[in-house]
Amino acid sequence: MKGTIPDDVDADADAVPRKGKVVTTKPPPILPDELIEEILLRIPARSLVRLRNSVCSSWRTLISSSQFAKDHLRRSMAVDPALTHPRIACYGQTYLYPTIGVFSVRSVMGNPPREPTKVVPYDYEGSFRLIIGSCNGLMCLHDEEGQAMLWNPCTGFTSQPLEIGCLLSICGFGYDHVNDKYKLFAVVKKKSGESVSRMFTFGPNSTWRTIQDFPHKLGDRNYRGSMVDLVGLFGFR
């Protein structure tokens, strides 16, 4: 006589799976890489910097890539046109460390003028105290030892110093979109007193080359600003 199973006992609790039957579970949903990148592109740059060391290696590699930085900048400027408005960077020396402030030209024209928005303190062993120019969120700094470097106030990134070897009288910093390089144009004075025009290129292997002399008398004035690349022609603004 077959026994009956009490109502309070689960009939499947001790049941043995039938031979050949495979028990499967659904894997967690996986987002496509394209969707992940689109989500990360919408996160503000400062938040990405804070998250960079807390995410998986694949995300960290994506966030740190130069192409992602370009896409993020392009999207940010499209979403917030105010990012394209002219800005002024000011340098201030305090007792403990130098600081750099940024404010828009519009705020200067206001009544009363607004205080500049302070960015992270510039923290470096050297003394890069001269702001040559800025482009795409990067600042080009120059020191009294004849070196130049790139600094990103948002991420804290600093490039390897570029040896110039002298002070600059006429110079400009800009982006060469054809070769995808940041460049520094400078008219430098040699020890002999001769002036030559050079183009410095930032990168893992920073280089410089002598170009055609700048068609302008140096005099005693200093000319520093943003270099504009107009299909092989360079100007200042």
UniProtKB/TrEMBL annotation:
Pfam families: F-box-like (PF12937), FBA_3 (PF08268). Residues 31-72 form the F-box domain. It comes from Arachis duranensis (Wild peanut). SMART domains: FBOX. InterPro entries: F-box-assoc_dom_typ3 (IPR013187), F-box-assoc_interact_dom (IPR017451), F-box-like_dom_sf (IPR036047), F-box_dom (IPR001810), SCF_F-box_component (IPR050796). This is F-box/kelch-repeat protein At3g23880-like isoform X3.
